[in-house]
Amino acid sequence: MVYVGETSRSLKERAKEHEADVRLRRDKPISQHFNGAGHRVQDGCISAITNKRQFPLLQTY
Hints:
By secondary structure, the protein is an all-alpha fold. It has one domain. Helix content is 31%, strand content 0%. It is built from 2 helices and no strands. The protein has helices spanning 11-23, 29-34. It is elongated and about 35 Å long. Residues 1-21 are annotated as: Disordered. This is GIY-YIG domain-containing protein.
């Protein structure tokens, strides 16, 4: 399974949220997938493709 997502929080925080969704069997796609037959949360793997932070433009007068 390939999951592509975007978050303003840290990747570690987002991964913990996904893990909790699975562990607590919340009604979310990631939970439904990993709680289905033949899957475990330990089967998941998270990799960052890019880290892009947006900063407001600084203006000088």
